[in-house]
Amino acid sequence: MSGEKEKTSAPSSSPYVEFCKGVNGLDKVILRESRGSSAEVYLYGAHVTSWKNDHGEELLFLSSKAVFKPPKAIRGGIPICFPQFGGLGTLDQHGFARNRLWSVDDDPPPFPTNTLSKAFVDLILKTSEEDSKNWPHSFEYRLRIALGPGGDLMLTSRIRNTNSEGKPFSFTFAYHTYFSVSDISEVRVEGLETLDYLDNLQNKERFTEQGDALTFESEVDKIYLSTPTKIAIIDHEKKRTFVVRKDGLPDAVVWNPWDKKAKAMSDFGDDEYKHMLCVEAAAIEKPITLKPGEEWKGRLELSAVPSSYCSGQLDPQRVLLGS
Ligand SMILES: O=P(O)(O)OC[C@H]1O[C@@H](O)[C@H](O)[C@@H](O)[C@@H]1O
């Protein structure tokens, strides 16, 4: 894919980008960086299902019961919620992008910033006749998924209104990232303390978070509002910190189904809630509105770094203020 200009029906692979088949023969792209990190992306949903560091350790949670069969969305990895987050509209839960077959975009418009990465793939989803019945708008959604030389995973969404009759459209959005954690009761999230949130478990009522980092001992489903561009997920047991950097995405959803909801989900193991946490960079409270011809950009950058200890406590300043 990298550097290719011509449109070809079967994209050719390189040492950095391999086009192959995944579960159930679904088309899959593997990105590899020279130091050993990798990522896997299904064209079904433009869904990242794996992100490994240069030691080959998996950083995303993927359920052992995930169903790789349309129209079910894949449970785990990074589902794309577009054009609707959750049930906030008339569409099916989380919109349709996560259960559509995307195409490889052979000739994407140039990116304003130069990326050092050679391990990237550009995907595209356009309006289909079927979707326009429920969401009567014409759009082009371009997604670049890139692995940086240091193993960072970067997702850039560019969504354009291509309506020809002058109609604007609005949407809500989330990168529904499932992080893999050693034990949910040993995890802290920093960067969301003192913020307002809507609690999905209490009719989306608005509350204010206490001053401490978030910890987990029961089901959580909250939409934090106007969040900082950097959030840290600290896994004490693994001594690993995930850093989420986001741009164009003011909100952040934190979700763990805990035991009862886990049992109710057919594509999720009963105990798997212990090993995952969703922290989702999102635009929910204020939907994005695009006039015809306008484009919106939303960027997610994930990195995983070894945690450092400072008098028995992880030092949040180093994580959140460090570059
Ligand atoms: O089962 P789904 O459709 O993938 O959704 C999973 C969860 O996704 C979260 O983003 C929502 O806040 C939760 O309410 C929801 O349960």
Automatic annotation (TrEMBL):
SUPFAM superfamilies assigned: Galactose mutarotase-like
Pfam families per record: Aldose_epim
GO molecular function term, any single one: glucose-6-phosphate 1-epimerase activity
Binding locations of substrate: 75, 93, 98
Top EC class of this enzyme: isomerase
EC numbers, comma separated: 5.1.3.15
GO cellular component: cytoplasm
Gene3D superfamilies found in the cross-reference section: 2.70.98.10
GO BP: carbohydrate metabolic process
Catalyzed reactions per annotation: alpha-D-glucose 6-phosphate = beta-D-glucose 6-phosphate
InterPro entries: Aldose_1/G6P_1-epimerase (IPR008183), G6P_1-epimerase (IPR025532), Gal_mutarotase_sf_dom (IPR011013), GH-type_carb-bd (IPR014718)
Alphabetical UniProt keywords: Isomerase
Annotated active site: 176, 280
Keyword Isomerase: yes
Entry's family note: Belongs to the glucose-6-phosphate 1-epimerase family.
UniProt name for this protein: glucose-6-phosphate 1-epimerase
Lineage, broadest ranks: Eukaryota, Viridiplantae, Streptophyta, Embryophyta, Tracheophyta
